[in-house]
Amino acid sequence: MLDVYFTLIFLFISITSISDIFYYRFNMHRLNLEALQLLKDSSAGVLQFAVTHFTVLLLFVLAFVVLLVSLKFTRVKQFPIQLTPKSSYIKFIGAVVFFSAVFIFSFSKYLSPLSASLLVKPGYTGLYINSPQTFLYSFRSGWTYVKPLQFVTDSEANKAYPVFYANADTAKPTHRNVVLFILESFSYSYLDPTNLEKPSTPFFDSLIKHSAFYTRAYANNMTSANGLGSLLSGLPSLMNQPIFSSAYANNPIDAIGIRLQQNGYETHFALGANDDHFGFKKGTKLMGLENYWSGEPLPKDKHDGTWGIYDEPFLQYFAEKSNHFKQPFFATLFTISSHYPFKLPDSLLSKFPTRHSYANERVVSYVDYAFKKYFDYARTQSWYNNTIFLFTGDHVSKENDKEKFNANSHFHVPIFVFDPLNPVSKVYNQIIQHTDFPSTIASYTGIKDSVISFGLPFNDTTKYRFTVNRYSENIIQMIDAEMLLQYDIINQKVLDIYRIGEKDTIRLEIDLERLNYIQTVKVPLLKVYMQQYFNRLYFNRLFTSRS
After folding, report:
1. How far is the C-alpha of 254 from the C-alpha of 288, rounded, in Å?
2. Cα 352 from chain centroid?
């Protein structure tokens, strides 16, 4: 019976490993569950590949011969087992439990193929992991696998909606630092100067008066992980999984963090939770953020008892660490205090007003207070004037029961940019989104390399701007300055078209002329956008050399 088990294990390892020796060069990632779909959809193509690369079959035959020979000349000797006293059984079981626990708590995180990012640089993770590992892991990972779309040819898609951004040849590196602040669960309404029921945010209100503030800013997602993924990768979240925790995580990608590193930037990510909270350490390293700062070094009295370190002490910690960053640097900090259950330090419970009596009102004011303290310190440091600060919410918060959400407002987040060297006071009403950040940061820094970005730089006013997000399991939305279109991705058809009004209101579009224009001009563009997204994931074309 042992021979049978050994044979099955040997064949599995041999088939997956030998297949990848040849197939890896075509898809640039290790085998996973998607390979079974490939066998189902194109068995003839797989057979042709095997015939063309006959050395694959030759290696299989050689491996099988080695197996047969080893089975023939290897014998398992049987020894009688002597029963031991009950106490020995207990000791044995105890030892197994102990060493299993040590392994689980110390080493199990390295079993995930995504953990390769903790040990090697992005783009080299495929060399660290192995094919049997990724294939087995994909069965229990919950990964979503995409299927390619073909509405137009690839060249037509690249012309209609290019997804790589590069600065002009005449652009010169600015060597400016960039700090991106991602505000947990921040709706646009929290910072909307026209909202009479907004929380008290005196510091943000003042900072916005010296910033570029965008009134029509959108997230491409509904969750923190997807928000982080879109901001750092430039990809929307149309498969309901961030790129860095998906089946495509180890695919090469021209992410802004990777490109900045290649252009001499030091890159950092900071989150006041535990190390690798939600897999963010693995994910941000895959996106090129080399250094990770968690809340674990801070004392326990700074911990909120739920998620991690309160924002105010962690922002101070981050500011002090920034003094040791090598310039130029790109750093991203993700706040946590405005996440449910909205904990505040006991000493500050009475400091913030609750004029409108909704659950997270006071904690939004606390986050504002935390950033005031951060900037009070940061503006005295040598790196401050050379730094551009970008702010956005990861997604909206629905904790304010006085606020009603619809398909449009559900993705409306604040975005503003503060530059100490150019403290402008400008309000822009154009559509911008999370996937605009990579191209915007590339523009600010003047780097020479292209980055992937399903969006445009904030300051590009020459092109048609729109945003795309996944509203539900089967509905993908396209939103521009005037309309919201819902498309059924499963059944490939338009569902509803809405006209956008003031204060994020929407109503069904009934104007036949407008409906016809949307169907003939904007729906085809959405199809091209989806084709670019799904096909570039499926065919591993997230980097320019295979664009």
Report:
1. 9
2. 33
| Three-state secondary-structure class, residue 273 | coil
Residue for token pair 């990964």: 143
β-pairing verdict for 493-500 and 506-508: antiparallel
The domains located in the chain, with CATH, are 2-140 (no CATH), 176-448 (3.40.720.10)
d(CA 235, CA 163): 9
- Residue-level length of the chain: 547
- Residue 164 scores a pLDDT above 70: yes
CA distances from 263 to 172, 290, 381, 415, 496 (A): 12, 14, 24, 26, 45
pLDDT at residue number 494:
96
Report the pLDDT averaged over residues 285-305: 95
What is the spatial distance between Cα 24 and Cα 127, in angstroms, rounded to a whole number? 11
How much is the pLDDT for 40? 53
Does the N-terminal peptide bond of residue 328 adopt cis geometry, omega within 30 degrees of 0? yes
Q: CA–CA separation, 405 vs 389, rounded Å?
A: 29
Contact status, residue 144 vs residue 538, Cβ threshold 8 Å: no
Q: Are 473 and 240 in contact (CB under 8 A)?
A: yes
Q: Which residues contact 302 (CB under 8 A, 6 or more apart)?
A: 295, 309, 310, 313, 314
* Whether 405 contacts 294, CB under 8 Å: no
Asked if 36 and 136 count as a contact pair (C-beta separation under 8 A), the reply is: no
H or E element in which residue 214 lies: strand 212-218
Does the predicted model carry a pTM greater than 0.85?
Answer: no
The span from the first CA to the last CA of the chain, in angstroms, equals 51
